[in-house]
């Protein structure tokens, strides 16, 4: 059997989670690898959520929020946008390919876009293969 | 800690979930999970018997937490929270797993979908174990209402609310009330005068002692939350401007639409051929009682073209819903004014969906109007006629029913321009904090079950600003929005969600990072205690401060770190 990645999605309640629901009501099919966790706003996403997901076995983490300027809380997505490069930097330091984490904007009317983003991300993570994190963790334990 | 007693309910949603997800398999997979006492599947969990089953289990089996794996929580979370409450359990002890919108409706492999449904249910199960009981807050509900837009929709809503005893601020950008309907002559299909309709509304609105009409005015800001908004309105006078501010509990957005710009369809020559006019320009002729060409001649041939900007790949894919009947009305009005005139009606499909519409269509067909059908995206082409022709223009139509290319004469062409969202609909959406769909129309809370509410509490949408519709549908929505608001204001107070952030004072270092981060200025600082505090009624629970607090001193109620961590563990288990 070919390798199928496990993915976690953190979606803001107002735009992206609604967009994902719209993909459902519109019956737009997409890769089943993603498991969605709803948060009120991307600004709530503590980088530790992403690290926790990766440590617990996710091969990829997708973060989706409202388009810049469209945030339900006016500017929460900008806060996520600023944390994102730092998060990527940490991942690289840990030896995890930064491409395993991705931030995308999906509005409440973009069911198709959500499906496209999930499909594309799933394919990219599939190409990257299993996350090296378990190995990194084991090595880390051995070094202690 | 005492052992938890969790009930898991996997909904089949008829066959919506069950035809892809093996619900029995999900039940089996959760049964042996820690804390699970009951696990069941049922046809419709949201139905009365479904809810009663959950309530009975809570009471008889002493459940203290519930997981419902079903549709989106955006759909039925309130339903199950109420069920818990009626069973005597705190309503926040339920968590939903979205196995319909985000699983059975988007995947087709039963094995993979069942596995995903299991994972999502595990996520909910681990999360609910960490839920805490929360108490909702009761806040005062200001009975006054802001209505944005003084068309038929806004005026109808304003009257309904004011008749119900509430003060209404009706804000209109133009210098007169009436909106787009004020530009219309007769209404279809009963041929009543639009002027009479508008006049009776305007008179009542202007005379109503509980309606304050603000003309030449725009809402520049709206702060606060349901029951307690502060609206700022700017009014432009002849040579100056004034600003007024008032408190309102709810808002009705009734900002309507603008007509499609016909010059965007190049093959109709609008703007170049003087006798190609839009439906609104033709209404003006009808209102003036003069149906004539630019040259002042009585037209011998009138052609009406449907779906200008609507039902097209290039412009708007949606149907504007009023144009078909309006076109038939024009055929009727032209025939009444100029009995010898030849009228052609060039359409894609005749949408006669409303009450009285089909009869009106039948009457139109009998009145010697030439109907020509064209295929979607195969538009007719209008050109100037030659000197030998007895008409001003010629229209080439690939007539769909006969399969022939037909050329028809015209002295006057009426383009049935569709409806589109106003250019500033984005600004309005931001002002009141609601969303727009891909075409710019405002998005309702639920398209079928909650069509006038939005995802922002206290903000209602009605009329065409939510999607094209005719006057009866607009009036129905205006009254619906008013009814929703009256039902809330009559109680004098409103319960608001218990989900907000709170500061643990023992942990707070007083760094004040959160103070400036909050988009609602809901966090204040006590310089004596050197601690920050969240004003819970103002907090909207985005959680920005929670993720940013360097001391982890702020907790997002119902979205705590431990709850989200547990859910992450669950979905990956």
Give your account of this protein's structure.
The complex is a heterodimer of chains A (144) and B (573). Chain A is of the alpha/beta class and 144 residues long. Chain A has one domain: Rossmann fold (3-Layer(aba) Sandwich), CATH 3.40.50. Chain A is 47% helix and 16% strand. Chain A contains 5 helices and 4 strands. Chain A has a 4-stranded parallel sheet, with helices on both faces. In chain A, helix 3 links the parallel strand 3 and strand 4 (101-105). The longest helix of chain A has 19 residues, at 76-94. Chain A is globular and about 50 Å long. The termini of chain A are far apart. By secondary structure, chain B is an alpha/beta fold. Chain B has 4 domains: 6-136, Rossmann fold, CATH 3.40.50; 145-257 and 421-493, FAD/NAD(P)-binding domain (3-Layer(bba) Sandwich); 260-419, 3-Layer(bba) Sandwich (FAD/NAD(P)-binding domain); 501-556, Alpha-Beta Plaits, CATH 3.30.70. The two termini of chain B are 23 Å apart. The mean pLDDT of chain B is 95. Chains A and B meet through helix 1, strand 2, helix 2 and helix 3 of A and helix 4, helix 5, helix 14 and helix 15 of B.
């Amino acid at each position: 059997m070919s390798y199928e990645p496990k993915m976690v999605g953190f979606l803001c309640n107002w735009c992206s989670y609604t967009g994902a629901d719209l993909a459902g009501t519109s019956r737009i099919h997409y890769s089943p690898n993603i498991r969605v966790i709803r948060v009120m706003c991307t600004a709530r996403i503590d980088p530790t959520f992403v690290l926790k997901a990766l440590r617990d076995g996710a091969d990829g983490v997708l973060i989706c929020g409202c388009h810049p300027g469209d945030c339900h809380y006016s500017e929460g997505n900008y806060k996520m946008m600023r944390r994102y490069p730092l998060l990527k930097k940490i991942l690289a330091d840990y030896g995890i390919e930064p491409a395993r984490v991705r931030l995308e904007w999906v509005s409440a009317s973009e069911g198709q876009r959500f499906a496209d983003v999930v499909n594309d991300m799933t394919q990219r993570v599939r190409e990257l293969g299993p996350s090296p994190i378990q190995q990194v963790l084991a090595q880390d334990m051995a070094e202690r | 800690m005492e052992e938890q007693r969790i009930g898991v309910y996997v909904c089949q949603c008829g066959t919506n979930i069950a035809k892809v997800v093996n619900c029995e398999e999900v039940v089996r997979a959760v049964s042996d999970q820690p804390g699970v006492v009951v696990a069941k599947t049922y046809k419709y969990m949201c139905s009365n018997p479904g809810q009663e089953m959950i309530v009975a289990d809570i009471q008889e089996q002493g459940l203290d937490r519930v997981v419902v794996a079903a549709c989106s929580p955006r759909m039925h979370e309130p339903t199950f929270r109420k069920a818990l409450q009626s069973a005597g359990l705190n309503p926040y002890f339920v968590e939903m797993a979205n196995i319909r919108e985000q699983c059975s409706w988007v995947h087709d492999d039963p094995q993979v979908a069942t596995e995903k449904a299991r994972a999502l249910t595990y996520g909910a199960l681990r999360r609910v174990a960490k839920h805490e009981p929360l108490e909702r807050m009761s806040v005062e509900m200001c009975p006054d209402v802001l209505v944005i837009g003084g068309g038929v929709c806004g005026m109808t809503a304003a009257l309904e609310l004011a008749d119900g005893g509430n003060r209404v601020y009706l804000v209109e950008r133009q210098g007169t009330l009436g909106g787009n309907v004020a530009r219309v002559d007769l209404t279809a299909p009963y041929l009543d005068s639009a002027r009479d309709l508008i006049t009776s509304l305007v008179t009542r609105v202007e005379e109503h002692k509980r309606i304050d009409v603000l003309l030449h005015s725009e809402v520049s800001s709206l702060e606060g939350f349901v029951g307690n908004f502060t609206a700022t309105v700017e009014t432009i006078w002849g040579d100056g401007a004034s600003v007024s501010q008032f408190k309102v509990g709810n808002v009705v957005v009734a900002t309507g639409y603008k007509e499609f710009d016909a010059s965007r369809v190049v093959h109709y020559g609008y703007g170049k051929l003087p006798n190609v006019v839009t439906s609104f320009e033709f209404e003006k002729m009808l209102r003036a009682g003069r149906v004539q060409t630019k040259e002042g001649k009585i037209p011998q041939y009138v052609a009406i073209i449907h779906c200008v900007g609507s039902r097209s790949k290039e412009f708007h894919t949606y149907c504007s819903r009023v144009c078909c009947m309006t076109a038939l009305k024009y055929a009727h009005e032209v025939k009444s004014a100029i009995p010898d005139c030849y009228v052609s009606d060039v359409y894609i499909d005749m949408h006669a969906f409303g009450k009285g519409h089909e009869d009106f269509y039948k009457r139109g067909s009998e009145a010697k109007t030439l109907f020509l059908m064209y295929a979607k995206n195969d538009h007719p082409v209008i050109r100037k006629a030659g000197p030998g022709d007895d008409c001003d223009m010629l229209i080439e139509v690939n007539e769909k029913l006969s399969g022939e290319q037909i050329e028809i004469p015209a002295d006057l062409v009426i383009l049935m321009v569709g409806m589109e969202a106003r250019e500033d609909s984005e600004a309005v959406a931001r002002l009141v904090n609601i969303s727009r769909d891909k075409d710019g129309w405002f998005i309702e809370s639920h398209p079928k079950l909650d069509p006038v509410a939005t995802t922002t509490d206290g903000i209602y949408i009605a009329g065409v600003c939510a999607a094209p519709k005719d006057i009866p549908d607009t009036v129905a929505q205006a009254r619906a929005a008013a009814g929703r608001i009256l039902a809330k204001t009559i109680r004098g107070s409103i319960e608001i969600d218990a989900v907000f952030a709170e500061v643990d004072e023992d942990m707070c270092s007083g760094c004040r990072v959160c103070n400036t981060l909050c988009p609602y200025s809901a966090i204040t600082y006590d310089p004596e205690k050197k601690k920050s505090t969240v004003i819970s009624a103002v907090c909207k629970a985005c959680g920005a401060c929670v993720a940013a607090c360097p001391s982890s001193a702020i907790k997002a109620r119902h979205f705590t770190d431990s709850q989200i961590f547990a859910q992450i563990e669950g979905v990956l288990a």
